[in-house]
TrEMBL record:
Family: Belongs to the CmpA/NrtA family.
Lineage: Bacteria, Pseudomonadati, Pseudomonadota, Gammaproteobacteria, Oceanospirillales
Signal peptide bounds: none
Protein name: ABC transporter substrate-binding protein
Keyword Cell membrane attached: yes
Keyword tags: Cell inner membrane, Cell membrane, Membrane, Signal, Transport
Originating organism: Halomonas dongshanensis
C-alpha cells in the first residue's frame, strides 16, 4: 500500500473526523479498506478469547446501550432475568433515544457494547456517516420483527404505486428499515429518492408523528407498529417477513478495540447474549419475557402490546386478528451473506462508493465463527456454513455475485 494512502487511512481510522466517508472511500477504495481492516482488526486474538476457556474477567461492570424496541429483547431481558450475572457480569442496560446517539456513545466509549441495527457495524467500520472505527458483530438479536404501517387515512391506498408524494419514517439511515423500504417501493416502480420522502425518526417518536400527520406511514421496529394499531391511528400494511422471510434486524455489537483489550469479558458477554437470544427464541418463553421487558426502565409499553408482537397473535388494524408466530424471531447467527446483502444496498443507494470487497468486509465484521463456537459450547445447534442465498420478493440473491445483483435493478443510485 502506498505510504501516503496508508497514512491517510490510519488517520481516518483513529481521528480527523472531518474526513467525509465519500472522500475516504474514493481515496482508498473498498478493496483497500478491507485489506487495511484485516490488518487492524485483531481477529485472531478475539477468536482466541471465544475458543479458549475464559480466564479472569478484565472488566465486570459494563454499560450496554439499547433503543427501547422489541428487537432488543435478548439484550434487555438478560438484565432482569439474570443472564449477565450467570456469566459473572454486572451490566447496566441504558435506554438510548435513538441510533445516532447509540453510535456516538459507542464511538466515544461511553458504551462497552450496544444493541445496534445490523447495518451499523458495517457502516461504522467503513466510516459511512461517522469516523471510521473497526466494529464487530458476533451475534444477531432478531430476525423479522418489522412492519410497514400506514395512517388510517390511507386505507384505500394499499397499492404502493399510490404512494407517490408520501412521507415515510425510518429509524436510521443505516438500518434494515431504510433498505427494506427502499427495496420494496423500488420493486413497485417508485424511486425512493424521487417519488417518496424518507425521514429519520427515533422509534419512540414514530406514533406521535403519524398521529400529527407529519408522516403518512413508517417502516419501524416494534412495538411501535402494534402501538399505532393499539391507539387506532394506523394499520399494518405488511410485515417485513413478507418482503424477506428471515431478514436480520438488530444485533449485538462492540468495538474491536474492546474485544481486543478485554478478551475474557468479551467472551463472557457473547455467551450471555447468545444464551439470552436462544431463550427468547422459544415461543413458550415469550409471555414471561413480555412482562420482564415492559417496565418503564425498559420498553415502557403495555404488556398486551408487547405480547402481541412476541407471540404473533395480533390485531392488524384492518378488522382482523392475525396468527403469525414468527412475526419476530430470535436467531443469533450472523450470516456473512446478510452482511453482503446490506453492503449491496449501501452501494446501490450511494452510501458507499468505489470497489467493495464484500466477502472480506462481511468476514471481518460479522463474526459467524465466534457465534458457531459459542452456540455449540452452550449446547445449541449452529449452521455448518457461514453464507447462503436468499429469496427476496421473488428474486434470488446470490451472495457470491453482489455486483451482478446490484446491476440487475432498474432503479439504483451509485
Amino acid at each position: 500500500m502506498d505510504r501516503m494512502v496508508e497514512s491517510a487511512l490510519v488517520r481516518g481510522m483513529f481521528g480527523h473526523s472531518e474526513m467525509h466517508r465519500r472522500q475516504f472511500m474514493k481515496l482508498v477504495g473498498g478493496g483497500t479498506v478491507a485489506a487495511a481492516l484485516a490488518s487492524l482488526l485483531p481477529l485472531n486474538a478475539i477468536k482466541a478469547a471465544v475458543n479458549e476457556s475464559l480466564g479472569p474477567l478484565e472488566k465486570t461492570q459494563l454499560n450496554i446501550g439499547f433503543v427501547p424496541i422489541t428487537c432488543a429483547t435478548p439484550i434487555i431481558m438478560a438484565h432482569p432475568m439474570g443472564f449477565y450475572e450467570r456469566y459473572g457480569l454486572d451490566v447496566s442496560v441504558i435506554k438510548t433515544a435513538g441510533w445516532a446517539v447509540a453510535r456516538d456513545k459507542s464511538l466515544n466509549r461511553e458504551y462497552d457494547a450496544a444493541h445496534m441495527l445490523t447495518p451499523m457495524p458495517l457502516a461504522m467500520t467503513l466510516g459511512a456517516g461517522s469516523t471510521p472505527e473497526p466494529f464487530i458483530m458476533p451475534a444477531v438479536e432478531n430476525i423479522n420483527g418489522q412492519a410497514i404501517v400506514l395512517h388510517n387515512d390511507h386505507l384505500d391506498k394499499r397499492d404502493p404505486q399510490q404512494w407517490r408524494g408520501f412521507t415515510f419514517g425510518v429509524p436510521f439511515e443505516y438500518s434494515m428499515h431504510n433498505f427494506l423500504l427502499r427495496y420494496y417501493v423500488a420493486e413497485h416502480g417508485l424511486d425512493p429518492d424521487q417519488d417518496i420522502q424518507i425521514r429519520v425518526i427515533p422509534p419512540p417518536e414514530m406514533v406521535a408523528n403519524l398521529r400529527a400527520g407529519n408522516i403518512d406511514g413508517f417502516l419501524s421496529p416494534d412495538p411501535f407498529n402494534q402501538r399505532a394499531v393499539f391507539e387506532r391511528i394506523g394499520f399494518i400494511h405488511l410485515l417485513t417477513k413478507e418482503i424477506w422471510d428471515g431478514h436480520p434486524c438488530c444485533a449485538f455489537a462492540t468495538s474491536a478495540r474492546f474485544a481486543r483489550e478485554n478478551p475474557n469479558t468479551y467472551g463472557a458477554l457473547l455467551r450471555a447474549i447468545i444464551d439470552a437470544t436462544q431463550y427468547s427464541s422459544d415461543p413458550g418463553n415469550r409471555s414471561e419475557i413480555a412482562e420482564a421487558i415492559a417496565p418503564t426502565n425498559y420498553l415502557n409499553q403495555p404488556v398486551t402490546v408487547i405480547e402481541q408482537v412476541l407471540t404473533g397473535r395480533f390485531a392488524d388494524g384492518l378488522g382482523g386478528v392475525q396468527e403469525v408466530p414468527d412475526r419476530i424471531d430470535f436467531d443469533p447467527f450472523p450470516w456473512h451473506s446478510m452482511a453482503v446483502w446490506i453492503l449491496t444496498q449501501m452501494k446501490r443507494w450511494g452510501y458507499i462508493e468505489g470497489d467493495v470487497d464484500y466477502q472480506q468486509i462481511a468476514r471481518d465484521v460479522y463474526l459467524a465463527t465466534d457465534a458457531q463456537t459459542v452456540m455449540r459450547e452452550l449446547g445449541y445447534e449452529a449452521p455448518e456454513e457461514t453464507a447462503r442465498n436468499y429469496q427476496i420478493m421473488g428474486k434470488t440473491f446470490d451472495y457470491t455475485q453482489p455486483e451482478a445483483y446490484i446491476d440487475s435493478f432498474a432503479i439504483r443510485r451509485s
